[in-house]
Specification:
With 238 residues, the protein is α/β, with parallel strands linked by helices. The chain is 20% helix and 19% strand. The protein has an eight-stranded mixed sheet with strand order 3-2-4-5-1-6-7-8.
């Protein structure tokens, strides 16, 4: 007879270093609408997961990656924050305000290093005070991803994790992984991972024309000088 498997130590389970497969069997909750019907129709729960990591993968900034989550962020109640951790450039407040985001509820966190970024993200999730959290990370290990996933689940707070294109080749415990592609008519989205059947078809999302500045850069995401209105959310790097 095969030997009985030993139970896992409770401290390992609590730390988040061990991912439990029975999480896949949990029922899908109604999600937050993305604001894009064609994307909602492809997502379990009809929108963004309310308690999970959502990976947004792209090598090209300024293609609409912020407009993609803006409809959901606009739903934040006055008593809850929208936290952004380690954005690669300084956000351009006038463009965000024009996009309908309440700037009084935007919490911008700019840590000094990667370890502080992960710590700050976990604290923002665990606080229970955030409508959503967004983290920009060029490198993140599996253990950190698992801990962030557990924090998102425990607080029922979605974490939008922006990662470079190379991350698409790495495994991840994220419930949802999207590849973002620049398109002349808006934003292209390929679902790399979701709960349910696999699909790799290209979804074409039309971005609001009043926020688009050019075929490949929109007024929220473009890398243009902050003082050259109506520019983008990020100033130019020098």
């Amino acid at each position: 007879m095969p030997a009985r498997a030993k139970p896992l130590p409770a401290d390992l389970l609590a730390s988040g270093l061990i991912w439990q497969a029975d999480r896949l069997a949990s029922p899908v909750r109604q999600g937050w609408s993305t604001g894009f019907p064609v994307l909602d129709a492809e997502l379990p729960g009809g929108g963004w997961p309310r308690d999970a990591i959502i990976e947004l993968i792209s090598d090209q900034p300024g293609i609409g990656e912020l407009q993609l989550i803006l409809p959901m962020l606009r739903l934040a109640p006055p008593t809850r924050w929208v936290a952004w951790v380690a954005p690669p450039f300084m956000p351009y407040a006038p463009a965000l305000a024009a996009g309908g985001l309440d700037l009084a509820g935007l919490l911008l966190i700019r840590p000094h290093d990667h370890a502080q970024s992960i710590w700050a993200t976990r604290q923002a999730l665990a606080s229970g005070a955030c409508h959503a959290v967004a983290l920009w990370s060029g490198r993140i290990d599996t253990a950190a991803l698992r801990r962030l996933q557990l924090a998102a689940e425990a607080s029922a707070t979605p974490l939008f994790l922006y990662r470079p294109g190379s991350a698409a080749r790495s495994p991840s415990p994220a419930a949802l992984r999207l590849q973002l592609l620049a398109r002349p008519d808006g934003l292209g989205v390929v679902i790399l991972k979701r709960k349910g059947p696999i699909t790799h078809k290209l979804l074409r999302l039309a971005l609001p024309s009043r926020l688009r500045r050019s075929p490949t850069h929109d007024a929220l995401d473009s890398l243009t000088p902050a003082r050259a209105a109506p520019a983008g959310i990020y100033p130019r790097r020098h």
